[in-house]
Amino acid sequence: MTSALPKGIRTRGDSFVVDVSFQGQRKTGTAPTIEEAILLRRDLLAQIRGQPVVVLTPRQQKSWALSKAIGVAEQVAWKEAWGKRAAHNANDLAKFVGKDRPLDTIDINTLELWTADLEARGKSDATINRYLAAVSKVFSVAKRRRGAGERPDIPRRKEGRGRTRFLTREEEAAFLGLFTQWSKQDEVDLFVVLIDTGVRMGEALRLEPRDADFETGFLSVWKTKNGDPRSVPMTKRVREVIGRRTPEIGPVRDVFSVSPHSFRQTWDRAKVMFGLSDDKQLVPHALRHTCASRLVQRGVPLKVVQEWMGHKTISVTMRYAHLAPANLLAAVKVLEEED
Question: Taking a C-beta distance cutoff of 8 angstroms, is the pair 55, 96 a contact?
Answer without folding.
Answer: no
